[in-house]
Every structure is written in C-alpha cells, then in structure tokens.
Design brief:
two-stranded antiparallel ribbon, mainly alpha, Serine Threonine Protein Phosphatase 5, Tetratricopeptide repeat, 2 strands, 19 helices, flat
Length: about 375
C-alpha cells in the first residue's frame, strides 16, 4: 500500500493546531483557577474580619479546592474549624497536611503543633500528649512542653508534671522551681494517704531541694510532725516559716499555738505571736493568741482593738462569743455596729443573672450586658 505524503503534509498542521488550541484552553483554565484562588482567599479574609465565620469557611474551602497544594490555606481553614469548635474537621485538615510528602519540615512542624492543639481543645488528652511529644526538639518545643505541663497537672500526674517542668527550667524557659516543689508536695500528700511514710518523706525532701525558700514544703513538714505528735519538730519548722514567710504563717498559726501549749511553752509562743501580730494583724493570728492567752479581759480588749483597726466578721463573732450574754460597753457596741455595716455593704447589691454585673440600684436593663429583666428582684443577701 503506497503511503500518500500529501495526507501527512495536511495532517501535521492540523495536529499542531489542535495541540495549540488544547494548550491554550488548559492555560486559560489554569489562569482562571489561579485568579479565582486568591480572590476566594481574600474574600474569606474579609468575611473573617467581619465575624462572618460560616461564609469565611465556605470561601476558604473554595480557595483550597482551587489550590490544594497551598498549605497556608489549609492552616487558615483548620484554625477556623478549631475556633468554631469543629474539632473533627480541624483534625482532618491538619492530618491531610501531615500526609503530604512534599511538605517542608517547618510546615510539617507547624501542622503537628496545630494538630496537637486540635486534640487538646477536643478533650482528647491522650492523643494531644502524643502529638505534643512529637514536637520535642522543634521550634515549638517550649510551647509543647508548657502544654504537656498543663495536661499533666490537669490529670494530676504530678511525677510527669515535675519532669516536664524540670526540662523547662533547664532550657531557660523561666523559673519553675516553686511549681516543681508543689508537684512533689502533692506526691507527698498522696503517699501519706496511702500510709507510705518513707515515700512521702522522699517526696517532701525533693520539694525542699527544688525550692528551698518555698513556704509549702515547710508548712507540710510542720503539719506532718504535728499530726504524729512531734510538737518540737513542728515548732521548729513553723518557727522557720514565721521568720521567712510571715504571711504564710497565718495558715498554721492555730496549730502552732496548739503545739506550743502541748510543750508548755505558752509564754514564749505568746510573745512571738504578739510580735508578729503587731507587724501584721490578721484574724488568724488573733485566733491563735486567743488559744494561748487565758486573760479574758485582755483578749477582749485585743479583739476590740482589732475591730477598730481592721473590721472583720470573724473578730466580731469572737467579741460576741466572749460577751456571752453580758452587756457590751458603748465603744464595743459602736465598733460592732460599724463592722456589721461594712460587711453588709457588698451584700446589699443586685447582681445581673446574665453577666454578674453588680449595682446598688435595681435596673430593668443591665448597664453591663444591656439585657432586659436580667436582675433578680432580690439583693445578694436575700439569695
């Protein structure tokens, strides 16, 4: 069969023309898609700024469909889903990013961090922990450790929390010494609850090593000595606390008085407490003084002086108890009246049930949230 060159000469230009037309069509489609992609993206940003989250999500989805390889669009979409509480969709977006083989290392770390946040917000703490641990050694290392610390504290895994806090401390991310001491104190409490004294002793020792000046380990050491009847050790620990952390001493002032009384050292303890009380008068110190001082009239004068300087309902109740049915003197009665009036003022307010805005006068429309009929018609003291 003879081959006709005439057909070849006619076919080549036709094939070339068809190829050129096809390429032009693909090019135009590509340009149109590229043009549509940023337009949808900017439209999404505009809607997001206008708090129109539903429409913004639709715009970002359209942009992703036009340009599925752009990671920034995926991150924007995933973050939107997370903010709206659609955690499952956020997880899918970020997991899709992590499956891409061409994703740069920095973007992969960013996607891993976003995925960990998705799990955290969704309450999937086991998966969040795994995701955050995968960020070890990345630029998100510190953020991941802080999140892990919060996770362990939430789940009361104090040993793991102390380990993570120690890493943060060693990396120069801030001071976590007091926080670590609290973790070991919690472990000591748990060990004591299981009656594992040796383990509790070791945990408390670790707490004091982590933060030698922290008040809680000193308080706990005194409380544990007091509980087992070792009042001498308790007074020694609390004496240190009184000198280094006088404000924290209020937490154990009554126990201190009890231990001093048990050892027959009432006078010395009374002198120390009075010195501390003169520097910083508190109701806790006043109560402790009352446990040590047998002079009823002197105690009554001390309570009255406290009320004149610092009105407190606890002290007012103590004064009434000491009166025990006997008539109050004129100055005592006036001080008591002033104390009760001052204490009652915060309770003589109306509180909005919607936003908790408090006001002395009743409002039909809340000045805080502008809601109508949100104030119960009773004052705080009547609720």
């Amino acid at each position: 069969m003879d081959f006709d060159l005439q057909w070849l000469l006619l076919g080549l230009p036709a094939a070339f023309a068809l190829g050129w037309l096809a390429s032009r069509f693909d090019l135009r489609q590509w340009k149109r898609e590229q043009k549509d992609s940023p337009r949808a993206y900017y439209q999404g940003l505009n809607l997001l700024l206008n708090e129109q989250h539903d429409k913004a999500i639709d715009a970002f989805i359209e942009a992703v469909q036009h340009d599925p390889d752009t990671s920034d669009l995926h991150f924007a979409l995933g973050n939107l889903f997370r903010r709206r509480g659609e955690y499952e969709r956020a997880v899918r977006v970020h997991e899709h990013l992590l499956k891409r083989a061409d994703l740069p290392a920095s973007e992969r770390e960013r996607a891993q961090h976003a995925l960990a946040q998705d799990f955290m917000k969704a309450g999937l703490f086991d998966r969040a922990e795994q995701a955050f641990r995968a960020l070890d050694g990345t630029v998100f290392d510190t953020e991941a450790r802080l999140a892990l610390l919060a996770l362990h504290e939430r789940s009361r895994d104090w040993r793991a929390a102390a380990e993570v806090a120690g890493k943060l401390e060693r990396s120069g991310s801030g001071s976590f010494a007091t926080r670590i001491a609290n973790h070991w104190c919690e472990l000591a409490l748990e060990a004591d609850a299981r009656q594992q004294t040796a383990e509790a002793d070791e945990a408390l020792k670790r707490a004091r090593e982590a933060a030698p000046q922290a008040p809680r380990p000193i308080i706990m050491a005194g409380q544990r000595a007091h509980a087992r009847g070792d009042h001498r050790e308790a007074l020694q620990q609390w004496g240190t606390l009184m000198a280094t952390h006088p404000a924290a001493f209020n937490l154990v002032a009554s126990d201190y008085a009890e231990s001093a009384k048990a050892l027959g050292e009432t006078a010395a303890a009374l002198e120390r407490l009075e010195t501390l009380y003169r520097r910083e008068p508190t109701t806790d110190l006043l109560t402790a003084l009352g446990r040590l001082d047998d002079d009823a009239q002197r105690l009554r004068r001390r309570v009255l002086a406290h009320l004149q300087r610092q009105p407190a309902l606890t002290a007012a109740a103590a004064l009434l108890q000491m009166a025990n049915g006997t008539p109050l003197a004129g100055d005592e009665l006036q001080v008591l009246r002033d104390t009760v009036t001052r204490a009652a003022k915060p309770l003589q307010r109306y509180r909005c049930a919607a936003c908790a805005f408090e006001a002395q006068h009743y409002f039909w429309q809340c000045p805080g949230c502008l809601g109508w009929d949100t104030y119960p018609p009773q004052r705080q003291e009547d609720l």
